[in-house]
Amino acid sequence: MAPLRIAIIGAGPAGLTLARLLQVKGIPCTVYDLDANPHSRDQGGTVDLHRRGGQMVIEEAGLLEEFKKLARPEGEATKLVKYDGMVVIDENVQKVERTEEHKDRPEIDRLRLRQLLLGSLTEGNIVWGKKLLGVEKSKKVDGKFDLRFDGSVEEAFDIVVGADGAWSKVRPFLTDKNPFYSGITAIELWAMDVDIQHQWLSQYVGQGTMFMFDEGRAIICQRNGNNSIRTYAAVRQQETWLNDCGIDWSAPEAKTRLIEGYFADCADDLKRVILDSNDNLIPRPMYMLPVDIKWEPKAGVTLIGDAAHLMTPFAGVGVNIAMVDALDLSRAITSCVDDDKENIGAAMSAFEKEMFRRSQMFANKTWKNMQSHFSATGIDERAALIH
Ligand SMILES: Cc1cc2nc3c(=O)[nH]c(=O)nc-3n(C[C@H](O)[C@H](O)[C@H](O)COP(=O)(O)OP(=O)(O)OC[C@H]3O[C@@H](n4cnc5c(N)ncnc54)[C@H](O)[C@@H]3O)c2cc1C
């Protein structure tokens, strides 16, 4: 019997993890990504891998020891600050007993996680510079699928996995549901070489993440492994706010306008966090898929990660559940290869059923966190969650 022809769209954490897990089982697949090469796009900040989430999957992928060398357990340190500057908790200077669920969540830079997964894959299994436009039923072979890329078509796949993130081009094959605006827009700012160039900021933020939550606003600063700090100044505003708030985000005075308009009554330290960052402000409206998203199974095509269940980052679970999706799907695919290829439909449908249950649970939690954190008691709610 010919091996299954498997395509994974997207070389993010979900797609690369699935490719690695299949490789460990000796199942060939091809990953397609729109990036021109692995270095063509900044991978952003840092993520934490949970013991029963990303870490469990990394272990299954045979990469736990390598992961431990790259991870930053000290990056777990959390500092919670009220809008008036009062420090509620600072794990950089005090020992706080965390709830079981929030223990053992070492941080890793996204770039390092990507390098770890990429380095574990056989060369040639990833095709860069392939932007998917859509999935179609094969006109030539019943039960197979063709991939329409920008400039080319790849034919006759048995299994197509959409791991292509928020704006998935595989998703429309399965459902007409689209991401919608969550109500929160963040302005991203960076400070580089902080131990030398921004010593005050470096000390104020500490080794991990500093959070300020308040009614309709937040400031979140996260240290990365490359000695940089990424800050999000976030506000609850309408979707058109970026354009109609009157701030020119590329102008030198954008930071002061942001502070005057939305953080004027905050403590000087919190304003300084914004002022000490560089002038390259990156607006990021946050989108999400419906909390209860589901679709009718279609044998051979499925989604994992953000493509399946995009949520805002306020429960910090996105990468973790993307990787758990990859683990579950790899098991479903392995069972078809081992036992019976005719079972692809049933195995993938069972996988999706469990993924829907899990994603709904985490999407609900994320939604509740977003509501409670962006409130006058937000920082206390955050403290109660983890300690
Ligand atoms: C500010 C912020 C902070 C976060 N913090 C955390 C955290 O601390 N912990 C956590 O667990 N999660 C966190 N998340 C969520 C996490 O980043 C995502 O859930 C995770 O990246 C999803 O992985 P993915 O592989 O599904 O999608 P992505 O990471 O989006 O990867 C998708 C891949 O598909 C490719 N692609 C897209 N479209 C196409 C196309 N048409 N054709 C071909 N390729 C395509 C892209 O180039 C990309 O490589 C955070 C998210 C944000 C926004």
UniProtKB/TrEMBL annotation:
Upper taxonomic lineage: Eukaryota, Fungi, Dikarya, Ascomycota, Pezizomycotina
Signal peptide: 1-19
UniProt feature coiled coil, ranges: none
Positions of the FAD-binding domain: 6-335
GO BP field: response to antibiotic
Matches recorded under HAMAP family: TetX_monooxygenase
Domain of life: Eukaryota
Keyword annotations of the record: FAD, Flavoprotein, Monooxygenase, Oxidoreductase, Signal
Protein's UniProt name: Monooxygenase, putative
Pfam families: FAD_binding_3
GO terms of molecular function: FAD binding; monooxygenase activity
